[in-house]
Amino acid sequence: MKLSWDQLPRHVKDPLAAVYVVHGDEILLQQEATDLLRRAARAQGYTEREVHHAERGMDWSALLASVNTLSLFGDRKIVEVRFSGKPDSSAASMLEKYAGNPSPDTLLLLILPKLDGTAQKAKWFAACDSAGASLQLPVIDAHTLPNWLSGRLQQAGLRTEDTEAFALLRERVEGNLLAAQQEIEKLRLLADNGLLTTDIIRSAVGDCARYNVYELADCALNGDAERAARMLAGLRAEGETESGVLWALGKDARTLAALREGLDAGQPLNALLQQNGIWQKRQSLFQKAVQRTSPRLARLLVSEILATDQAIKGQSQERGWDVLLRLTMAIAGRPLLPGIKV
């Protein structure tokens, strides 16, 4: 049985199934879904919990025996298995076998990254879905973030002063739902009668490190290469993480490359700005940036994102901050690599 995110709260009020497959990349939603399932399970008499992390060389036969073994005290239990990727052949075989005859006293909770269509057609997935339920977590991207954020604000008893205040909040938390939820909880303490003004959002949400990262991205898009380089150096000195800077710069670089590709395909810029979820106050920045971005520079942006990610992960000989500088300069229209014309 396939469940949607909206169906889950109602579903857990009924007797729970034997197997649940929760998959998706949004950490906040993953936490919320599994917490909801655990609370419901405890209310239905699942008093014990085991947690396993799927690793290379794991003894799946031993896990299968554990899942099928009644608790020492005769209690029902939750067996939670966390995967960092798709199940390997051994895990898939075990899961398919178990789902064919699940234990009535065990709730098997499988937590995985987002599974593509091919993975969802695998025998193990079909068997688990048939024996219980699967939940694919929604993707909260630039297009779906406004509705998600509006719903979370409403749940918290908050409302924004105007469209610009909401747009500012959205820009500050885009791509990081964990931070978004934390900021909403903080704003509940600051808002007078639940009203969020632009000044409150700018001062409260802007105090976090990502505010400065956003300034860096805006500065690069504006073409102020020298100031952007100084800001990047300042972020490094203040202890900002390389991955945090890449997150902010990378999304703007990908958007800029997408705009260039769309223009080259004959699409109008205004429509492209809307399609890519660029809010009004930043549209002029992207309009300015895309005009100085050649198709070749757009391809460089994409390759520099990958090069930065590899450097941060230690998968290349380069240093992460060095490649971040190249990416920043490329966004600003001042690529450091020779032979690249803007």
Can you give a write-up of this model?
The chain is an alpha/beta fold. It folds into three domains: 135 residues, P-loop containing nucleotide triphosphate hydrolases (Rossmann fold, 3-Layer(aba) Sandwich); 63 residues, Helicase, Ruva Protein, domain 3; 122 residues, Zinc Finger, Delta Prime, domain 3, CATH 1.20.272.10. The protein is built from 17 helices and eight strands. Strand 3, helix 3 and strand 4 form a beta-alpha-beta unit. It is globular and about 65 Å long.
Q: Which secondary-structure class do the elements indicate?
A: alpha/beta
Proportion of helical residues? 55-70%
Strand order, biggest sheet? 1-6-2-5-4-3
Number of strands: 8
Assign the CATH class of the largest domain.
Answer: Alpha Beta
What's the name of the CATH homologous superfamily of the largest domain?
P-loop containing nucleotide triphosphate hydrolases
Instruction: Summarize the biggest pleated sheet.
Output: 6 strands, parallel
CATH architectural category of the largest domain = 3-Layer(aba) Sandwich
Mean pLDDT: 87
Proportion of residues in β-strands: 5-15%
| H/E series | EHEHEHEHEHHEHEHHEHHHHHHHH
User: What does the overall shape look like?
Assistant: globular
Rg on CA atoms, Å: 24 Å
CATH topology value of the largest domain: Rossmann fold
Number of discrete helical segments:
17
The separation of the N and C termini measures 52 Å
Low-confidence runs: 207-211
Number of domains: 3
Task: Summarize the topology.
Layout: E1 2-3, H1 8-11, E2 19-23, H2 27-43, E3 46-53, H3 60-68, E4 76-82, H4 89-100, E5 106-112, H5 117-120, H6 123-131, E6 133-136, H7 145-155, E7 159-160, H8 163-173, H9 177-190, E8 195-196, H10 198-204, H11 209-221, H12 225-237, H13 242-264, H14 269-275, H15 280-291, H16 295-312, H17 320-331
Parallel strand pairs: 1-6, 2-5, 2-6, 3-4, 4-5, 7-8
Helix pairs in contact: 4-6, 8-10, 11-12, 11-13, 11-17, 12-17, 13-15, 13-16, 13-17, 16-17
